[in-house]
Input
Amino acid sequence: MSKEYSVAVVGATGAVGKTMIKVLDERDFPIRQIKFLASERSEGKKLRFKGEEVVVQKLDHNSFDDVDIALFSAGASRSLEFAPSAAKAGAVVIDNSSAWRMDPEVPLVVPEVNPHAIAQYKTKGIIANPNCSTIQMVVALKPLYDYAKIKRIVVATYQAVSGTGQKAIEELEEEVKQWVVKGCGNEPGKSKGYVGEYEYKAYPHQIAFNCLPHIDVFLDNGYTKEEMKMVNETRKILEDDSIMVSATCVRVPVFYGHSESVNVQFEAPIEAEKVKELLEAAPGVTVLDDPANAVYPMAIEAEGKDDTFVGRIRKDISQENGIDMWIVADNIRKGAATNAVQIAEKLIESYL
Ligand code: NAP
Ligand code: 3JM
Output
């Protein structure tokens, strides 16, 4: 019989954790025992896995005895605090937060792009899952990088509220209900902090019918931390610190699916047709590019899927060796849960 593993899902009650549980089931990950961990708020709650009810336990430093693989998605501070205990107990941690991504002793992995990096997990017992916006961009850019090398990327993101977690999904729903059903949109400048009777909490402004150029905290260089994640993680995953990246990350009133407008300057010439050909053959990519028939990737169609969708592929008329494209993926699936489970699959295939 093939080997089966003891798996813990940390943050099992959250937007990412719940999807991890679904993806483990869908992909038939070989599981001997599963453990769901969350905060004390969720202790005793029951979640289903393969038709069985599993009781959620409170995360603590002793949660990882007899765990082979621990999938973390409970926020960066929990990862910083508990991943070392999990690794010490013998589990391999696959961490979804930003806590360990830039640690030079921790591999940062997208299975279609740099699966070889997983080997480095042995140093700390931790593998980092990149930021959602970075994952979908590098899945699409890797085959192009290999063909023509990339000098510079300018990206603007249109990110779904599910990236902020369960409470932000509810916030957008609530604001839309207040605005549309109760007919109580606020006049600008009035009732700051509220949409109708709903006091918003997940974002500093109303997100319904709005765009916020603000994801994660602002840094001294004028970029946000989310934007700098895209810069640093792209270089680490593509193993090329010479790539220049400038990102603007924007939260939009979409539930699931991040979209990105990506402008790339290549080192060598590359035609739009060649880009299409390379992406059509690339693992994890679906090209949707027939503008004459209004075919291009859209968040609502990427929702629930694991591929990264690319369209609007065209030559940049403003520079040599430039290409523009539009990249979309489900941020909770390929951007988080699916990528983490794919890492776990590679891990057991070659190392455990
Ligand atoms: P969420 O819906 O707010 O869920 C948070 C989860 O963390 C819940 O299960 C929550 O448990 C748990 N948690 C919170 N405080 C805890 C504590 N003190 N001890 C144990 N568990 C605790 O958020 P989410 O969207 O699932 O995201 C979770 C994390 O995943 C994020 O903070 C981020 O680090 C990472 N993430 C990564 C990506 C990516 O791009 N790869 C994308 C999204 C999120 P309770 O239900 O008990 O509160
Ligand atoms: C996506 O606890 C935190 O600060 C987590 C914030 C967070 C992150 C992060 O920085 O880990 C929310 C949503 C991410 C991420 O993927 O980087």
In short: Helices lie at 15-26, 76-88, 132-148, 166-181, 225-238, 272-280, 299-302, 333-350.
